[in-house]
Structure formats: structure tokens, C-alpha cells
Design brief:
Helices cover 38% and strands 17% of the residues. The protein has ten helices and ten strands. The strands form two sheets. The chain has an eight-stranded parallel beta barrel. A two-stranded antiparallel ribbon has the order 8-9.
Length: 267
């Protein structure tokens, strides 16, 4: 069986939307979307904006993205910019971070994204994201309140990072947000993915799956621990087609091909 036929066979074949990132081939956003449209159900648009460089799509590109989605039974998840600090001690930094996310949300609104994925970055890495945890949490609450003026609460998915998710689960619950369960991050930082699945799957709208190799994540699914992918697939079998997205969060064609080969055994 050729690779293209095998890829196409995985589209619309699972009780969830199977996705990957908009950076699989070394080309621009539209070229990647055209390459992936017949292979997956959802594409994670990885967007960034800085003083030096930006890949935010203009209105013409967004129009083309929508046309591709409409004819290909495709949805998009939008990963909001990474260089944002929603809980920063400096209010002006928080405001700029929220403004940056709002520009992305407003610019992609016509795509009706399946979800917006956001990071609640800590002031530092590790078990405790801040020396002043109460201030850090309060800052995130204020930032979320601004974001929810432009996006439905359930469509804002807060991703698991390095610190225990229990530290922010009250923010997620209190505002009716969703969880983005990142399996690779959990493995990288020594958390038990099975425990997180048991605890957070009912609130989870997006799952990122990728392997970890020699301390580096976003690798092929071949680098997942034995049995973990089976456990994940078993957990997702009971969902409806439009209830969740499973994103292979990888960034090269070889890892994409290998990961699709692995997932084909579950079809």
C-alpha cells in the first residue's frame, strides 16, 4: 500500500478527530494544509508573533484556509503564541500577552476553530511555577476574564506543561475552560499520563501526543512507552467523532509518516 493511500485511510476512521501540526513539510502554512488535508481530520495552526517575525495569516490566507477546510471535512485547532505570560507580575506584560492572543483569536475567527490551545507559563520551570503562587494564579484569572470576552470558555484549552496541573485546575473549572492534555509534556516532566487521563479526560477537548527521545519531546509516536498508546486509544474509543482532537504534535514528515504507520494498527 502506498503512503498516500495509507494516510488517506486514517481520515475519518476514528471516534475522534485525528490531527497534526501545520509544520510537517518545509513550506509555508498553506502548502502544509494542502499537503495534510486528505490525511488528517484537524490541523493545529502553530502561530507566533514577535517584533522580528510573525506567521499570522492575513485575510486572504485565512479565506483560503477556510475554503480548504470546507471542501476537505477539515477543522483547525489554533495554538496561541508561546511567548505570552498570562500570570506575570508586571500587569503591562500580562496585558501585552492577552492582546497578542486576542489578535490571533480575532484573525482566525472565521475558521471557526475546534479549539484554541493556550499555555499558562510559569515564572520558572519545575514543580512550582512561581515563588508567589497566589499572585501568579490571580494574574491568570484576570487574563482569562479578558480572553473570554472574545472566545467561548469551552473552546479555550489550557495545556499541561512542566508543573502539576492541579495547581491551575481550579482556574479551568471555575471559568468552564477545557483541558489540553499533552502526553509528551507529561512524560518529559515525570508525570504519569495514565493518572492524568483518569483525572482530566472528561474536561479534555484536545490531546497532544508525541514521543520523548533522550530528553527531547515532539518525536515520533515510536518513542512512546510500550502500552501507553494502547491505553490512550482504549480511553478514546467511547467518544463521539466531534468531541475531541488527538494531535500528533510533531514537526517533520519522517516522524509524521512513522506515527501514521503506528496509528494504522489501531484502525
Amino acid at each position: 500500500m502506498s503512503f498516500n493511500k495509507r494516510c488517506a485511510s486514517l481520515k475519518n476512521r476514528r471516534p475522534f478527530r485525528l490531527g497534526t501540526t501545520s509544520y510537517i513539510i518545509p513550506a509555508d502554512l498553506l502548502a502544509n494544509v494542502n499537503f495534510l488535508a486528505d490525511k488528517v481530520d484537524d490541523i493545529e495552526l502553530v502561530l507566533f508573533e514577535s517584533d522580528e517575525i510573525s506567521n499570522l495569516p492575513d485575510a486572504a490566507t485565512v479565506k483560503m484556509l477556510k475554503e480548504i477546510a470546507d471542501r476537505s471535512d477539515l477543522t483547525y485547532t489554533v495554538h496561541l503564541p508561546l511567548d505570552t505570560w498570562m500570570g506575570h507580575e508586571d500587569e503591562s506584560v500580562r496585558q501585552r500577552s492577552v492582546d497578542k492572543c486576542l489578535r490571533v483569536i480575532e484573525g482566525t475567527a472565521t475558521l471557526s476553530p475546534f479549539a484554541y490551545v493556550i499555555h499558562f507559563h510559569g515564572d520558572r520551570l519545575g514543580e512550582s511555577p512561581s515563588l508567589d503562587l497566589a499572585r501568579w494564579i490571580d494574574g491568570h484569572r484576570h487574563s482569562v476574564e479578558r480572553l473570554l470576552q472574545s472566545v467561548n470558555s469551552r473552546d479555550l484549552c489550557v495545556e499541561t506543561l512542566d508543573y502539576p496541573y492541579a495547581l491551575i485546575e481550579d482556574i479551568v473549572s471555575d471559568y468552564g475552560l477545557s483541558v489540553c492534555l499533552d502526553i509528551g509534556h507529561l512524560l518529559l516532566w515525570g508525570h504519569e499520563p495514565e493518572d492524568y487521563l483518569d483525572r482530566y479526560l472528561p474536561q479534555t477537548q484536545v490531546i497532544h501526543v508525541h514521543g520523548v527521545e533522550d530528553g527531547n519531546d515532539h518525536r515520533s509516536l515510536a518513542f512512546l512507552p510500550a502500552g501507553l498508546l494502547t491505553t490512550l486509544m482504549d480511553q478514546l474509543e467511547s467518544g463521539s467523532k466531534n468531541s475531541r482532537v488527538l494531535t500528533m504534535e510533531i514537526f517533520d514528515e519522517r516522524a509524521f509518516n512513522q506515527s501514521l504507520d503506528i496509528l494504522s494498527s489501531f484502525v
